[in-house]
């Protein structure tokens, strides 16, 4: 892939997983951003072939994924489960597409860059496998703010707790919360041990416990020594994006009954003393970050207000009481926009610019 033909042909884009939770938001973003793409092909499993989805104000028919579907594609965004991406992304790359993959299949591959355009855009240019990975949504919901603070203060350690929305588990997560809410709404449930579980029954969907009227201290699948896959992703991916392989990271991931937008509390330790005033200046001017922090007036980010927006929202900025080198933050980010589709679209736009595409 050396660039587009002279004369301004626009690159062909494939959206793989167009029917999913992330794919649906991707189609909205493609309809809202500058129109740099030529043909946009929508791919999904054979189950969805023939469905019509709207993008850029037009109805486009979904194609079943196949080798032929990638022929002539310049950039392919993958919003599909890990095993589907692991199989198809190398095929798309071999057929000449530059792949931007939203799954976890390639993120820690040393030959695949893990890119956040506000933090490490240069990494997108070095892609030995023709694949660029998009970080996981929990990491992405905080990393733009932390990258800005790291550039000034030098990050040394992170202690993080997440409050993750159900859409982080895809359409199945959203459906599960909505169904459980319909079972508990208007009842007296939530007052006796196990009363919610008895009404919800075995239908806990992708979660190990009922999520309505509850919080669940688990996200992902089991890893060694009691850690979850989601917690390991936050640690490993933060290290890779920031270029800090030894960064100390402690994280607990928790699922809450929010449809979309992850929240995190962050205790961030830096190389030297920090001041809240300087931290606020950095956060107020960092691209992709909104500082919304006036607790006396009841102003701080919450998922109900942040959902559907692009930036990383930061509030409750305080210096740690017992450590002058540490800050406490509350961060919110829409897990389907910056946490997934938006970051992927931004990476694809970097690639398109490299190929010479213009709106
Ligand atoms: N949800 C988030 O907050 C989030 C954030 C960051 C990254 N991600 C990652 O993004 C990816 C998609 O997540 P999601 O939440 O959008 O999942 P989802 O709602 O379950 O959607 C999955 C998509 O993959 C397609 N698909 C499934 N099996 C396929 C196959 N064998 N061949 C081709 N297409 C297939 C589905 O098509 P059909 O409709 O035809 O089944 C659907 O379009 C996952 O890797 C996830 O980990 C998700």
UniProtKB/TrEMBL annotation:
This is Aspartate-semialdehyde dehydrogenase. Phosphate binds at residue 107. It is an enzyme of class 1 (oxidoreductase). Substrate binds at residues 164, 255. Transmembrane segments: none annotated. GO terms for molecular function: aspartate-semialdehyde dehydrogenase activity. NADP(+) binds at residues 19-22, 47-48, 167-168, 335. Residues 12-127 form the Semialdehyde dehydrogenase NAD-binding domain. It catalyses: L-aspartate 4-semialdehyde + phosphate + NADP(+) = 4-phospho-L-aspartate + NADPH + H(+). The active site is at 137 (acyl-thioester intermediate), 262 (proton acceptor). SMART domains: Semialdhyde_dh. Keywords: Amino-acid biosynthesis, Diaminopimelate biosynthesis, Lysine biosynthesis, Methionine biosynthesis, NADP, Oxidoreductase, Threonine biosynthesis. PANTHER family: ASPARTATE-SEMIALDEHYDE DEHYDROGENASE (PTHR46278:SF2), DEHYDROGENASE, PUTATIVE-RELATED (PTHR46278). Belongs to the aspartate-semialdehyde dehydrogenase family. Pathway: Amino-acid biosynthesis; L-lysine biosynthesis via DAP pathway; (S)-tetrahydrodipicolinate from L-aspartate: step 2/4; Amino-acid biosynthesis; L-methionine biosynthesis via de novo pathway; L-homoserine from L-aspartate: step 2/3; Amino-acid biosynthesis; L-threonine biosynthesis; L-threonine from L-aspartate: step 2/5. Its EC number is 1.2.1.11. It comes from the Bacteria. Homodimer. Catalyzes the NADPH-dependent formation of L-aspartate-semialdehyde (L-ASA) by the reductive dephosphorylation of L-aspartyl-4-phosphate. The keyword Secreted does not apply. The keyword Membrane does not apply.
């Amino acid at each position: 892939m050396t660039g587009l033909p002279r004369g301004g042909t626009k690159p062909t884009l494939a959206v793989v997983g167009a029917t999913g939770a992330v794919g649906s938001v991707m189609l909205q973003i493609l309809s809202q951003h500058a129109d740099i793409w030529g043909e946009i092909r929508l791919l999904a499993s054979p189950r969805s072939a023939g469905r019509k989805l709207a993008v850029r104000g037009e109805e486009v028919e979904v194609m079943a994924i196949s080798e032929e579907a990638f022929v002539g594609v310049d950039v392919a965004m993958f919003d599909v489960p890990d095993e589907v991406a692991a199989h198809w992304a190398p095929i798309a790359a071999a057929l000449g597409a530059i792949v931007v993959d939203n799954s976890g299949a390639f993120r820690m591959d040393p030959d695949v860059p893990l890119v956040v355009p506000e933090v490490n855009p240069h990494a997108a240019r070095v892609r030995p496998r023709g694949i660029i990975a998009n970080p996981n949504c929990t990491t992405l919901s905080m990393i733009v703010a932390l990258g800005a603070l790291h550039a000034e203060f030098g990050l040394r350690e992170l202690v993080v707790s997440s409050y993750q929305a159900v859409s982080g588990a895809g359409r199945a997560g959203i459906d599960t919360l909505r169904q459980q809410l319909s079972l508990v709404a208007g009842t007296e449930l939530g007052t006796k041990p196990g009363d919610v579980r008895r009404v919800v029954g075995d239908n806990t969907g992708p979660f190990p416990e009922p999520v309505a009227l509850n919080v669940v201290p688990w996200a992902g699948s089991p890893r060694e020594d009691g850690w979850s896959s989601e917690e390991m992703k936050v640690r490993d991916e933060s290290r890779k994006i920031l270029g800090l392989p030894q960064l100390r990271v402690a994280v607990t991931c928790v699922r809450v009954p929010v449809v979309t937008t992850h929240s995190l509390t962050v205790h961030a330790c830096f190389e030297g003393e920090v001041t809240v005033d300087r931290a606020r200046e950095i956060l107020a001017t960092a691209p992709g970050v909104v500082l919304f922090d006036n607790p006396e007036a009841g102003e701080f980010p919450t998922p109900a207000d942040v959902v559907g927006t692009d930036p990383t929202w930061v509030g409750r900025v305080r210096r740690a009481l017992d450590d002058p080198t540490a800050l406490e933050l509350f961060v919110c980010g829409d897990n389907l926009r910056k946490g997934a589709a938006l970051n992927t679209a931004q990476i694809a736009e970097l690639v398109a610019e490299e190929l010479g595409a213009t709106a």
